Amino acid sequence: YNLQNTPFADLGRDAEIDNYLRRFYFVNNEDKKCYFNPIQRTDLGLMTQKNFGILAWQMGGGKTAGALAWAKYKPQRNTFVISASLAINLTWVPFLIKNNIKFKHIKTMQDVYDIEQGDWLLLSFDFLTRYEKQLRDYVKAQSHRVNLIFDESDEITNNATKRTRSVLSIFKRVKRKLLTTGTTTRNNIGELYSQLELLYNNSCNFMSWSEFYYVEEKS
Prior knowledge:
219 residues; two-stranded antiparallel ribbon; globular
């Protein structure tokens, strides 16, 4: 609780994580070995110390590679990657193949039953909502000891949609969660609520200590 509530500005650097990030490399689309730059290492070094967080880098900032480093530093029984179908097929599938990461692309019920510990699991929203019950049962059977990478987390800005309800139902209790997006909100600050609810599961970390709040009266 104290670690999660410590502001990033007050969080010291961890030497072990810094050394890990300096050695970490990934292979890009041109088959070149790449390392993180100092700014990326600083952000990831702080983010990796916490179990829950949002990595709000802009497009081209290296969110996919950063999420890979975050997940590999503390491997869990599985790592789930959820995102829109376009991001899964055009970004995550080729990236994981180039970096020799064993993964399953969940498309059928049988794929869910064939999950093995250690697998990276790619899920688009269509299949996530279709197999919500089976996925929720699997994650529960793993005692929620899985990593969740939610790419483009601004996709759950509306708390009333089936997509948002399914994501929360399956993943809100998992032990480590990283949300990545360049646009945490699209129109207003209220859109951030679902993402924070996913991160903190309405726990004590989600308490608001504001002395005042403002309500708009609608006549």
